[in-house]
Amino acid sequence: MYRRLILPILFRFDAETIHHFATTMLKLAFAVPGMAALARKVYTIDDPRLARTVFGLTFPNPVGLAAGFDKNAELVSELSDLGFGFVEIGTVTPRPQPGNPRPRLFRLKADQGLINRMGFNNRGSGPAAGRLRQFAQAKGTRRVIIGGNIGKNKDTANESALSDYLICFRELFDAVDYFAVNVSSPNTPGLRDLQEREPLTRLLSALQKENKDRPNPKPILLKIAPDLTNGQLDDIIGIVADTGIAGVIATNTTISRECLATPAKTVEQMGPGGVSGKPVRERSTEVIRYLHQQSGGSFPIIGVGGINSADDAREKLAAGASLVQLYTGFIYEGPAVAKRINRGLLR
């Protein structure tokens, strides 16, 4: 019903406007007494065969929601009730920022994809941490694994980026279960330069030092771009070994415009930004497989990119991923997508 009736109506309106409308409606719906319990009954699958223990955390199922949907940690409870085994909030930055000018989110309907150049629009790491603490303290709230995706402010020079990441790390430390270090978004100028071996090793080593100085260190993962060469992926494997971080999230959005079914002129009119969804599925799987094989499976990988179905998730898991995440697939497939994927994995 969602794809046949609801999606065509939603797609008549601007993508970002509909995103805000849908999230507002979700909050309002779940404010109705009994709605959360009903949603859990309809959308969640509680089966011990789905549980995964990865980097010291036990996930109720391997299907998570990627960063970008709940930037400000406002929907963690609702999203967990829709069957996701974990929710990654953000990307958050130390200071609030509006992001890039609108329009900045576009649908590639023929490709089941999106182009976005949001630019880390968020209300800051402090308010996000406060909301997560309220969520954790709420009476009777169902527990879900929460990831904190952290980045730097647009006006912070790369030479000072570490300070921004440390601020976010400190703010969120007691409020999340793991961290995702985002140096791979194409929508913050110069950010991807931090993926080079020397600056990235410096950044992750400093975060790890801060992490290990605390009584209960949190897993730190690195989110990488799908556009890295094999040589750069070899560097990533070396950096993971050198810094001792917990794993890798593969992958973020791509700047490539190859093999799109959407007319080139239409894509050009949309302008710059990262492509997500089905167009990145194959490349993200290639990256996962390369990292897993070349590292000998020495670290966990969260697979992201073009996951709309159980078959897509199975592909990522077979390539070497321990868990999977989706975002664009949630938009195209609707609120039952996590349930359908988990049910398919059980089969």
Helix-strand layout with pairing:
Blueprint: H1 2-10, H2 15-30, H3 35-43, E1 52-54, E2 57-59, E3 63-65, H4 76-81, E4 86-92, E5 105-108, E6 113-116, H5 125-137, E7 145-150, H6 161-172, E8 178-182, H7 197-212, E9 220-224, H8 230-243, E10 247-250, H9 264-270, E11 274-277, H10 281-295, E12 301-304, H11 310-319, E13 323-326, H12 328-333, H13 337-346
Parallel strand pairs: 3-4, 3-13, 4-7, 7-8, 8-9, 9-10, 10-12, 12-13
Antiparallel strand pairs: 1-2, 5-6, 6-11
Catalytic activity: (S)-dihydroorotate + a quinone = orotate + a quinol
Binding site for FMN: 67-71, 91, 149, 182, 223, 251, 277, 306, 327-328
Membrane topology: Peripheral membrane protein
Characterization of the model:
The chain is an alpha/beta fold and 347 residues long. It has a single domain, classed as Aldolase class I (TIM Barrel, Alpha-Beta Barrel). It is 41% helix and 16% strand. The protein contains 13 helices and 13 strands. It has helices spanning 2-10, 15-30, 35-43, 76-81, 125-137, 161-172, 197-212, 230-243, 264-270, 281-295, 310-319, 328-333, 337-346; strands at 52-54, 57-59, 63-65, 86-92, 105-108, 113-116, 145-150, 178-182, 220-224, 247-250, 274-277, 301-304, 323-326. The strands form three sheets. An eight-stranded parallel barrel has the order 3-4-7-8-9-10-12-13, surrounded by five helices. A three-stranded antiparallel sheet has the order 5-6-11. The protein has a two-stranded antiparallel ribbon with strand order 1-2. α8 links the parallel β9 (220-224) and β10 (247-250). The longest helix is centred in the N-terminal third of the chain and has 16 residues, at 15-30. It is globular and about 50 Å long. Substrate binds at residues 71, 116-120, 182, 187, 252-253. It catalyses: (S)-dihydroorotate + a quinone = orotate + a quinol.
